[in-house]
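Hello Y.,

Per our agreement to keep a running log of every chain we model this quarter, I'm adding this entry. I've kept the format consistent with earlier entries: sequence first, then predicted structure.
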Amino acid sequence: MDSSAHKFYPVQGIDSREYLETYFSNKPDMVFGDDSLKFPMECLHRAFSEGHIKGDLLIDISIGSFIHHLYTASGYFNQILVLKCSEQCIMELNRWINTRTGAFDWSHIMEHIKCTEGNSDQCPDNHMTLKSAITKIMKCDTDNENLTDPEVLPPADCVISAWILETISKNQDDYIRSFRNIVKLLKPEGYLILFGVLNITYAMVGQDRVHVVRYDEKFVRKVLTDEGFVIDHCAVQKRSADSDLSDYEAIIFITAHRE
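Predicted structure for the entry above:
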């Protein structure tokens, strides 16, 4: 497969609405629900409910404009700061934050919250709780050691990185460099929550074939341990549906901290 034909996310971006509709919507032909919606929310609920991962500031740096993974997190952190690589993703998020016409409909997430957390009576408040927790949405440049240069962010109690490292990196060496920049956002004793896709080479967003770095579980575990992290929990879910939209083999979820 000719990698030169692939769209490189940090340079060319993606259609943020098309990405949401393809991988995170409630449309009948959206086949990725178990992997992109249900699995992440179950993993996060389990991780946060253990009581170790909490604090004042959570920084999220993830691909696209999805926010479903932050619903549970908003109950454990006073403020959430969201970093995005593209202006289009920021615009998409602001449309949802401000309840503007045309905002992406996340109402189907309430069913997942009901299943994982059992608080269906509180579902109408979940949207407002998350919107209130997100205090800032910022543009970032993952090529910089300080992602938000010239602004310096306060160190975070937790950083969530979801499916971003494999799309902002040209190769595995670039993945490691980007990983080092992202974890600089953490307090020394902070927690890292990492989502990734294993053994993938591409993902389709509309008519665009998006470049993704291929790696396996052994690689990502080694990156964390080499950078001084202790892995607290690792879960891998094998691909649950067949589709030509992407060729990933599994989704991986990791929580880790530095001693």
